[in-house]
Amino acid sequence: MTDFEKINNTQQTNESTDNKSDNIKILKNLCGKNAEYFAKDSSENGQRLYISFLAIIDTLNVLYPQVLEVESRVSEFDLDESTPGNGYRSFISIFNMSVNYAIDLNQKILWRKNSILFRKTVLTKELETCSQLMSSLCTCFKHLQTMMLWSKEGNLFIEDKPLEEIRSVCENVNQYCFYGRSLGFQFCDSLKNVLQFIALSMAIFSEAYYSKGSLFSKATSSFMTTTKYITDPEQRAKRIVNISQNADVDFCKAFWFLSESELMNQLPSVVSPTVAVCKVINISPEPLHIVVEGKEIEVPVPTSYLGPKPIQVRLISYNNRKGMLGTKSYSNLEAPSRGLLIHCHGGGFVAQSSKSHEGYLRDWAKNLNIPIFSIDYSLAPEAPFPRATEEVFYAYCWALKNHEFLGSTGERIVMAGDSAGANLLFSVILKCIHTGIPIPHGMFAAYVPTLVKFVPSPARLLCMMDPLLPFGFLMRCLKAYACPSEVKRISNGAIVNFETDLDSFEEVSESDLAELQAHKSPVSEASDTLTYGSLTSNVDDVNDRDATSAEIEKSQKYMADIVHKYVLGRDYLGSMFSSKYYNSTSSAGEADAETEDTKVPQADTESCTSSVDSSFQTKLFGFVSNIKGHFSKMLGEHGGSDMILETDKPNTLWDDLCFPVPNNPYLSPYCASDEDLKKFPPTKILTVQMDPCLDDCVTFAKKLRWVGTEVHLDILEGLPHGFLNFSLISRDAHEGSKLCMQRMKELLNIHPESIKSNK
């Protein structure tokens, strides 16, 4: 670091400290004035307000020195001077936001305390939540100070104390305050309402998922609890914390499966760009050989846990291209693309699919203008490590060998994944290095966990307040994936793919491709069908842009009405659970003109309106019954209905989660040797400031840079882990997705007009 940089950083630190000091003085002054006023109020709420104001002042006197101590060393843990970011910085930002939150609340009370419209009861609860939040942060910073003392040479992971510290935090921190009235205060405004809705949905869904008795008794009891969670944020917070502590991995899968619902599957065709190709392909588990420099390398067929099974992938392309599967009869085909994107979705290794990530993938397909090959790997706990890695590796090798059938010349093949999907792709790169298979030309990873092990780091403490990735969810997902000996096996060992009955796919074997490659002249549609195998659905292949304008207008108008009324409007919560969206069917002729594997319910605007007027509870339990029906087929009866979660007393996780995790580089890329990391392709990593996996990203980027591998790290503010799934409904998340596209363009060496991004 140059002298100028040192001076500049010192000035910035001093300015930041001065701003904090000013805000602390303002907050203490406001608390003092309000405390003086309410000290004379003998009512219960008046005295509760008075005590809360004093508690905030007392907490600040302890908390602020802790923050300054952590801040004095925080730069030691950054990747470099131009990329400030780590878990310590994240907590400092949370402290700053909590101070601003407290100032705004104090000003509101100060200005309205003499008004006849002063809502004393509501503001009392809000101030108590604010006071508890400050107290919880004080506990967190105490542990951060300890972790900073334990850290070695700027390492964010405390590897010699694997569980005790994070256990202590979980037991001592009051988590309720982060999931009640202040839920989502640390995120951008465009996502706060979304996150609050998700938290509310989780609480309501858990009541139905774990309820007992008849449908009538369920509806009667749940009506009261649903109303309670909507009107009482404190009860909702208790429920969410208890869910995160007690719910099993089956509940996590069921809740995250909501993103696969029929209505959510319709959104990409309305909001995202129209694509020419969006089809599912099943790759037969046959022997596969890759020739590298004259040497033939055999790619093993995935067999772990489930035996040989077809691997499902999704091909998305903005244009029909020469050589692409299913385009023989089309005219005016685009030339094969130079690039190809190999994509793996996130979902904690246990949930989601390429379908639930289709929204932003369509946008990527248009802006990158290359085919996207998205892999639907088998999910834990039925398919734990290393099954998913085996499948993704096999699918990558298949794409490497058969890229021309995907509409690409294969000149630039880049991998891209988020969260668990990025972890799997890093593992595949390691397998390529070890087996001699050509590695991709670049790797893009979004908020990726690189150390799948219970090792404390400051960012991992963010799970204590994360509405999308609570600590219990994270731990149980990792356990389901990383510890096969702990897995509950299902009787038939099968994995059920939650594709709609209109998903068209083609099953492709090596013999099919060899026969196709032998054709030098155009063939008929009949021979095309024979070559690729029969479709299991009743839908013919549909080209989005060949559909009639009337079909497009009809489907888009209908879905636009749904989005306007139920997604963007106040009735969204009710319509979300309408059984009509899950049980309706449509004929092949009425298939959505924008994609091959979506369908539009046969309903007009009036029927949609009437569905909203029906009972919310009937819709909710009809929807949950449908969900349970799907999961009973896949998992068998999990007995969740016999487990009633306590509302007021969460149980501990530790008896359930104390188990060893192997130091396997295919499981944790952070454990890879320096020799292997030197062979990695250019890597772009993007994460967010409030991500529990932030330290994983920063530390892994440090390791790559240390061995000389080209690496770039972006850290965005205001967005949560998994923000790509919200890019259709949040402007800030969409801007983050645009930056992802820019980084992938750099890896692909694509140089059209650059995408602007607000970092």
Summarize the structure.
This protein is an alpha/beta fold and 759 residues long. The longest helix has 36 residues.
Top keywords for this entry?
globular; Four Helix Bundle (Hemerythrin (Met), subunit A); disordered N terminus; 49% helix; alpha/beta; nine-stranded mixed beta sheet; 759 residues; two-stranded antiparallel sheet; disordered C terminus; single chain
Please, could you describe this protein's structure?
The protein has 759 residues and is α/β, with parallel strands linked by helices. It has a domain of 152 residues: Four Helix Bundle (Hemerythrin (Met), subunit A) (Up-down Bundle), CATH 1.20.120. 49% of the residues lie in helices and 9% in strands. Strand 5, helix 11 and strand 6 form a beta-alpha-beta unit. Helix 1 packs antiparallel against helix 2 and helix 10 packs parallel to helix 11. GO terms for molecular function: sterol ester esterase activity; triacylglycerol lipase activity. Pfam families: Abhydrolase_3, HSL_N. It comes from Rhynchophorus ferrugineus. This is Hormone-sensitive lipase.
Rg calc: 27 Å
Structural class label? alpha/beta
The rounded distance between the terminal residues' Cα atoms is: 24 Å
Uncertain parts = 1-12, 486-504, 516-617, 627-644, 752-759
CATH architecture of the domain at 3-154: Up-down Bundle
Number of strands: 11
Helix content: 40-55%
Main sheet: strand order: 9-1-4-6-5-7-8-10-11
Strand content: 5-15%
